[in-house]
Amino acid sequence: PLLVLVMKVLSKVSFGFLAVSYSCVVGAFQLSSGSDAPRSAAQVESRKDFLSTSASIITGAVLVSSQPAYARGRATLEQAYDRYTPRIIEGGKFYKSELYGAISKGNWKAIQAATAEPPKKSKEDRALKDGGVAKRAALAGEFSNARVLSAMELYAATFSDSSITPKTKALKAEVETLREVVDGMNKAAKIALGEESVGGGLFGIGSKKPSTSELSKQVQELYIKGGNAYNAYVFAANDGLPLQLNKLPFL
Predict the structure, then answer these.
(1) Cα dist. 97→66, 111, 143, 200, 212 in Å?
(2) CA–CA separation, 70 vs 241, rounded Å?
(3) 3 has pLDDT over 80
(4) CA 218 – CA 15 distance, rounded (Å)
(5) pTM of the entire predicted model
(6) How many CB atoms within 10 Å of residue 248?
């Protein structure tokens, strides 16, 4: 029953995100209490709100897993798995470690680099044999749309054929959430570094440039949101996966 699952939630949450495991156990990923990172609203979230969030995530996961995990065929699924999941897994490792550390320390240059997109094709790139693809790909951030999210989106499409299945829709919805998170982190880092103006108002703060502590708080909240989306993606992707394929690890 859902209530039993929700009661497994840890009673305390610090700067972290829900880790929904394949066995439906919900935990919390916490930042060390000795961190110098500013405290965010997520750190003082009440148990009631946390349980409510957990219930929502679990319910969504159950609804997704109740749908058949169709794909174009086992051979196609295995090919897509071999091609895309290494980038997904490496991206998750980076998110949990290096990006986690950069955000906790307020290292804006590292956050910007981690979420940066590769530069557009130049005239010099066109002169190269591969059109500069390898060169530009190497410049993509370790948790960028080009390096990680595009792989997640392409892998999600593998679970559909002539029509888009509920599983593919659910997976792509999580990718879109992650894309918003990555874009938000990158913009916040640029503002903190003075490389970009606030424009129409970032995160509802307004047109005035936010303080470093305000930006840190928003990036921490984005990190939690992204972690939840990544774990929800993994939960749905693992459902119905053939036994010969290793399940994607959670954060």
Answers:
(1) 32, 12, 11, 32, 22
(2) 10
(3) no
(4) 12
(5) 0.73
(6) 21
